[in-house]
């Protein structure tokens, strides 16, 4: 079978990995529907998948309760020099890590099939796209990768004899020996490691089968490795959604927006407008690759082909388009299961249906106080099924970006929206995002932490250098987007959201759109430009509270940022320090 591979480097690498991991068999994925259906049927047989009676060709999976989210503590950037991983990443000398990995992977696929997944991040043949190959012993990963990426034999053709690819190997870390009984969700949490070698541009992931730990095209390749490629080649790999906005006159612009995990990207990407005449269409909901073109603008593609979306909170009210996207051909992980073979999660309906099976496969007791669906339960759904997918979402050239938004989950201090004075100030806004942690990663939830550019867990190199790379972008693309900061999550002292959010976020997008056309008016403040007017027609709310700038709180923020920045030492660019000093000066005026 391996003889079919024309690419020598690929063949040699796969041989080496087979020798190391010792699988019982090898399967090169062709990406066909038949192959997908066969794997799903096998997983149903083994109790990994439950076929959903209410959604065509869709499945429910329950993970091991110890394997439910990204594990940031076990994620490593193993650059040759520690300083190049920087203070925000875990690091170990690459030789030492490689020795450790080789001993973990030794024989780890015993009794299992090794699947070869050739995939493209981005439309096939796009100059912005890149190819990867993931080896995995998890059929669940294969099926998710088929939805999330463009996968199949045509990728091998595209690779040809000489083409380059990002090699990535994944194992659940549970070899099967004679007499061993397999479980539905094998994993090895004690030994989990998600490792990136930025110079070699390779990925090794061991012990987890969940999300970004295991679907290696997503965070590992499209953000951690791709950010290094972008630094070296003059482009950007970002944790951003991409949307097209059309105004009532039919004029269209594209925006990209970075919010930390579980802070509203998928929702904004598919927003159903509450303002008549305004339309939002989705190019991507999680990752943007942006490259400068000859006209001086940044063009973005969505490197993914599917959505791995947060289930809880998704409803016909909050995000109807996400729900419609996962009507069929979808995989649901760690949600709750209904009596009649459908899925449910907190927030889907106001009252839960009777007789739910919870995410761990047990009858759910509403009085238990525990959620029926895990807070980081997710749907995997094909992007082309999204009713508002943008006509240009697969354009190999990408879409031109007019505005970049940065946001976080902040219950106070940060106003609803403001605009950066210029690119450097905008870079500073990205560098200073803080946000309350969510269930997307293991660890405490609701803890305020710095998450620069929403890339804290995803930057493949020194974060100080990354700030510098952003500051250097004008040299590659003279016509850069305007930059804005947004915050949908301010709360009243009673803990109620001050802003309705979701479909009403179009009101903020409208102001941004009209700022890009130099039509909307703004007022200069110490922190940036604030809207003179915002279209809140039909809403009754306290705009003053949403735009209040508390100088004392902001000066505290400045002092805190100064301490945070100290860890970057000489790698913190001058341009960022200057912005911090300038902000402090404006606040003291
Ligand atoms: P990842 O896939 O982890 O990167 O998450 P994401 O950034 O795509 O977040 P998503 O859109 O899935 O939203 C996460 C949670 O935030 C969901 O529970 C949403 O209901 C909630 N949320 C999203 N937008 C808003 C908003 O405008 N206001 C409020 N209050 N909540 C929101
Ligand atoms: C995130 O955590 O930002 C996600 C989910 O999009 S995962 O793919 O698990 O990283
Ligand atoms: Mn994400």
* CATH class categorisation of the largest domain: Alpha Beta
The number of helices is 16
Low-pLDDT ranges? none
Give the N-to-C terminal Cα separation: 72 Å
Radius of gyration, Cα only, in angstroms?
23 Å
What proportion of the residues is helical, as a percent range? 25-40%
Shape: globular
What is the percentage of strand-forming residues? 15-25%
Give the topology.
Layout: H1 8-21, E1 25-28, H2 33-45, E2 49-51, E3 59-61, E4 75-77, H3 82-85, H4 94-105, E5 113-121, E6 130-136, H5 139-148, E7 150-151, H6 153-159, E8 166-171, E9 193-197, E10 202-206, H7 211-214, H8 217-233, E11 236-238, E12 240-246, E13 252-258, H9 265-269, E14 279-284, E15 288-292, E16 298-301, E17 306-310, H10 320-325, E18 331-333, E19 336-337, E20 343-344, E21 378-382, E22 399-407, E23 417-419, H11 423-431, E24 434-436, E25 448-450, H12 463-471, E26 482-486, H13 506-516, E27 522-524, E28 529-531, H14 543-546, H15 551-566, H16 574-588
Parallel strand pairs: 1-5, 3-18, 4-9, 6-8, 8-10, 13-22, 22-26
Antiparallel strand pairs: 2-3, 5-6, 5-7, 9-10, 11-15, 12-13, 12-14, 15-16, 16-22, 17-21, 18-21, 19-20, 23-26, 24-25, 27-28
Helix pairs in contact: 2-5, 11-16, 15-16
The structure holds guanosine-5'-triphosphate (GTP), sulfopyruvate (SPV) and manganese (II) ion.
The site of sulfopyruvate has 9 residues, from helix 7 and helix 8.
Describe the protein's architecture and organization.
By secondary structure, the chain is of the alpha+beta class. The protein folds into three domains: 2-48 and 63-233, Phosphoenolpyruvate Carboxykinase, domain 1 (3-Layer(aba) Sandwich); 237-306 and 390-588, Alpha-Beta Complex (Phosphoenolpyruvate Carboxykinase, domain 3); 307-385, Phosphoenolpyruvate Carboxykinase, domain 2, CATH 2.170.8.10. The strands form six sheets. Strands 11, 12, 13, 14, 15, 16, 22, 23 and 26 form a nine-stranded mixed beta sheet that branches. The protein is globular, with a radius of gyration of 23 Å. The relative contact order is 0.12. Guanosine-5'-triphosphate binds next to helix 9 and strand 17.
